[in-house]
Specification:
heterodimer, A: 775 residues, mainly alpha, Rossmann fold, two-stranded antiparallel ribbon, 5% strand, B: mainly alpha, disordered N terminus, glycosyltransferase (chain A), transferase (chain A), Dolichyl-diphosphooligosaccharide--protein glycosyltransferase subunit STT3 (chain A)
């Protein structure tokens, strides 16, 4: 066998195997290190802080768990959330994340390592990302081999699509859920391959962990049955499938019902019925094949086939009847919004209003996956080539996850693992083909064995031809990759020579090209991670004119003010986005928060925000609101502020009070959403508008007050407030807090009382200004 | 819940050659042929497992009937009991398939001892959850 470059021949195969496994371990250590390190940008650039919104609740719950123990946490009723309703936290939470941190915390403290619970929470996601890399490695190894596995592990370790949800401080359910997703899938594939009930049981146990950790467990609940069903329809029923699926389903379903938040859903809701149906179907098919192995009568077998089909139809019919009778809950709105992207906007604005529930813009595929998105289809094609049972799984996963990722930005997260896996399969096939030193055998003209014989005239020509059509360097005859088949088909017609790669330089070109792409991928990932995904969003960063970093810390300033200057039981009203942060950082009572379980309550807040003061005031008083908090970015150009979210408040309020709140009233007659002097009357009278722009023009000393988010001039005579008074405004005006006035002691309404007071003595009602203007 | 389950019995794949030579027999006789083939071709070990399967099925049907006719009041207790029989049933059926000599080719890496160990582990995990769910 001739080789393109000299290979050492005096190495025993044990040495090769040992070295390979050592290299694997070293590579794996490096991958874990890179995965963890690239998630620490957030800590280095900012500080060890919990990010965003939901993580603040998880952090708060974890603190309760760590301080008071698991039973207290389990029975925790939180009276400070959803005032005055309160929230049964233990029963409405996926406790997996908190339990994980709690276990780690207790473990470390048992060994007298006094690590702060906050640091455990902050660093949990990076730690689990290393485990995800390991799970992806195992999964991909089942698909191809361990070199593809290492590539997949490296990809998932640094790919921005996964980093976006798992940077240090992003203490959310997804932080551990992707690991659980991959390990469950791996165990399922393993169970299916071996036909082992042990792996099925393990898959069920990790499935249980997943159910306890993330609402997205329904993805597994449906992926595995779909895989089983497709295998069944492909005529690939085997006893191994039966063993793997049944042991997973029987234990997994029972265990998933142990989580209080899930409860009886697995036997009551449509989302879980597919798994049950496939379970039943497998029983029938297995029974039928047992019977068939014992009798050989043709007629009987036909009868059997018919009865299996009838059973299936009857089962489906029973399911429909049970749904109509109400024994099984129909699909939920969240599910419908996956199929009809306009559904949520029409019927459940609260779901549509969340930015991560929006459809994905196509550049974000490139941003999150870069070169993997191009390799992804190639890897899926590779899976078709030897289409074993596990490849069917990857294909289904790829199709389903691609669709979901297109519907919702958030579900990019579930697409990322399969993209990494199939891109790794594609790339490792490419590398295998071109690293392989064996030259194709040529019958007539002998090529020299030593690979450096590129000086040989004929050979240079051949190699040159291969290099000339760089992309079309035809693949080795042994491993004919699908892509190169296509390309070489076009060019090999001319020369009837055997297909193959000739010489070391042709290989080098391809390999350097591939390595170059990987290097760019690493740069891209690092750049995206450090620039786009590492912002805590509680703390904002901007650059000074000299290029140094300027930290904008308005949120914490405001929350700290609340904590220091208001009574412990003060009720703070804000839009639901900030509920968890207020509870976590300011430790004050909130009306609504990011849990969004009660649409009416949120609509009440929306109504108060979008109504005129006189209408809003009774609502505020009825809910014992002491302070109202709004986010205003007009001064700084911070676009995620409440005026930009305002239309959603209007829509959600309109859903409950269609007579009182109408969205079109908030637009100008031309249908524009404006805040300047052309803004509609309703808009200008709304509480939100008033609170945002109250005394805004004074800041410019009567000059042109410019809202930098919307680029509009604010009228010189700003709105006046009668029922609220300004309590605190942060340095950059991002957070503004207003105090709700108590009823007038003389029984007048506050408007006349104010007018009276102002007529007599000017400015008495105004608070002392205690803010600095930053331009 | 699962009306389909009541028909399910244990199984074995590995469809053996369908010999077409047999004449078209009327149905009752083919049932008796099935019964005969089963009693003749099944080892006593597998028959023992089958007996357990039949017991589990009877127990499951009994619980289901009780739930439908009388009450499902402690629904978690019913689910725990019913899942225990269903889960034990499928685990036992899995064991049966793994030790069935006809399936030897399919389960290359699962020896009989391994199959039994899997069965034990699965049952322990299952009953841990059952016990937890009984309430």
């Amino acid at each position: 066998m001739s080789t393109a470059f000299p290979l050492p021949t005096d190495i025993s195969s044990t040495t090769v195997a040992n070295t390979a496994s050592l290299l694997r371990i070293v590579a794996f250590g490096l991958i874990s290190g890179a995965a963890i390190a690239s998630r620490l940008f957030a800590v280095i650039n900012f500080e060890s802080i919990i990010h965003e919104f939901d993580p603040w609740f998880n952090y708060r719950a974890t603190r309760v768990l760590a301080a008071k123990g698991f039973y207290e946490f389990w029975n925790w009723f939180d009276p400070t959330a959803w005032y005055p309703l309160g929230r049964v936290v233990g029963g409405t939470v996926y406790p997996g994340l908190m339990a994980t941190s709690g276990v780690i915390y207790n473990f470390l403290h048992y060994f007298n390592l006094p690590v702060d619970i906050r640091n455990i929470c902050v660093l949990l996601a990076p730690g689990f990302s290393a485990l995800t890399a390991w799970a992806t490695y195992m999964f991909t190894t089942e698909m191809k081999d361990s070199s593809a596995g290492l590539l997949a592990a490296a990809f998932i370790g640094i790919v921005p699509g996964y980093i976006s949800r798992s940077v240090a401080g992003s203490y959310d359910n997804e932080a551990i859920a992707i690991f659980l997703l991959m390990i469950t899938f791996y165990l399922w594939i393993k169970a299916l391959k071996l036909g082992s009930a042990l792996f099925g049981t393990l898959a069920a146990v990790f499935y249980f962990y997943m159910v306890a950790a993330w609402g997205g467990y329904a993805f597994i609940t449906n992926m595995i049955p779909v895989h089983a069903l497709v295998l069944l329809l492909m005529g690939r029923f085997s006893s191994r499938l039966y063993v793997a699926y049944c042991s997973w389903y029987a234990i997994g379903t029972l265990s998933s019902m142990q989580v209080p938040f899930v409860g009886f859903q697995p036997v009551r809701t449509s989302e879980h019925m597919g798994a049950l149906g496939v379970f039943g179907l497998l029983q029938i098919v297995a029974f039928a094949s047992l019977v068939r192995s014992h009798v050989s009568s043709k007629q009987f077998q036909n009868l059997l086939a018919i009865s299996v089909v009838t059973m299936g139809v009857l089962g489906a019919g029973a399911f429909v009847v049970m749904t109509y009778k109400g024994w099984i809950a129909p699909w939920t709105g969240r599910f419908y919004s996956l199929w009809d992207t306009g559904y949520a906007k029409k019927y459940i604005p609260i779901i549509a209003s969340v930015s991560e529930h929006q459809p994905t813009a196509w550049p974000s595929f490139f941003m999150d996956l870069q070169l993997l998105i191009f390799l992804f289809p190639a890897g899926v094609v590779m899976c078709f080539r030897d289409l074993r049972d596990e490849h069917v799984f990857v294909i289904i996963y790829a199709v389903v996850a691609s669709y979901f990722a297109g519907v919702m930005v958030r579900l990019m997260l579930t697409l990322t693992p399969v993209v990494c896996v199939s891109a790794a399969v594609a790339l490792s096939t490419l590398l295998d083909t071109y690293v392989d030193a064996s030259e194709p055998d040529v019958p007539e003209e002998r090529t020299e064995a030593n690979g450096s014989s590129a000086s040989d005239g004929k050979k240079t020509k051949k190699a040159g031809a291969a290099v000339g059509s760089q992309a079309g360097a035809s693949a080795a005859a042994a491993a004919s990759s699908a892509i190169s088949d296509l390309v070489s088909a076009s060019k090999s017609n001319a020369q009837s020579r055997q297909k193959g790669i000739w010489g070391a330089d042709a290989r080098l070109v391809i390999l350097l090209n591939a390595i170059g792409m990987l290097v760019f991928f690493v740069f891209h990932c690092t750049w995206v991670t450090s620039n786009a995904y590492s912002s805590p969003s509680v703390v904002l960063a901007s650059t000074n004119p000299d290029g140094s970093q300027h930290i904008i810390d308005d949120y914490r300033e405001a929350y700290y003010w609340l904590r220091q200057n208001t009574p412990q039981d003060a009720v703070v009203m804000s839009w639901w986005d900030y509920g968890y942060q207020i509870a976590g950082m300011a430790d004050r009572v909130t009306l609504v928060d990011n849990n969004t379980w009660n649409n009416t309550h949120i609509a009440t807040v929306g109504k108060a925000m979008s109504s005129p003061e006189e209408v809003a005031y009774p609502i505020l008083r009825k809910h014992d609101v002491d302070y109202v908090l709004v986010i205003f970015g007009g001064l700084l150009g911070y676009s995620g502020d409440d005026i930009n979210k305002f239309l959603w408040m209007v829509r959600i309020a309109q859903g409950v009070w269609p007579d009182e709140i109408q969205e079109p009233n908030y637009f100008t007659p031309q249908g524009e959403y404006r805040v300047d002097d052309r803004a509609s009357e309703t808009m200008r009278n709304s509480l939100m508008y008033k609170m945002s722009y109250y005394r805004f023009s004074e800041l410019y000393g009567g000059g042109n007050a410019l809202d930098r988010v919307r680029n509009q001039q604010i009228p010189k005579v700003g709105p006046t407030l009668d029922y609220l008074e300004e309590a605190f405004t942060t340095e950059n005006w991002i957070v503004r807090i207003y105090k709700v006035r108590k009823e007038d002691p003389l029984g007048r309404d506050l408007k006349t009382a104010n007018a009276f007071a102002q007529g007599k003595k000017r400015k008495r009602g105004k608070p002392v200004s205690r803010r600095r203007a930053i331009v | 819940m699962a009306p389909k389950l009541s028909t399910a019995q244990s199984s074995s794949a590995a469809s053996s050659k369908p010999t077409k030579a047999t004449p078209q027999s009327p149905l009752p006789s083919s049932f008796s042929a099935l019964f005969k083939a089963y009693t003749q071709n099944t080892s006593s070990r597998l028959k023992f497992i089958d007996a357990f399967l039949v017991f589990l099925m009877a127990s499951g049907i009994l619980q289901f009937v009780y739930c439908v006719l009388v009450t499902n009041f402690p629904f978690n207790a019913f689910l725990a009991g019913f899942s225990s029989t269903v889960g034990q049933f499928v685990l036992t059926a899995s064991l049966r398939q793994q030790v069935n000599p006809e399936n030897k080719l399919e389960f290359k890496e699962v020896s009989h001892e391994r199959a039994f160990a899997d069965f034990v582990v699965g049952s322990i995990v299952l009953h841990f959850f059952v016990y937890n769910f009984l309430g």
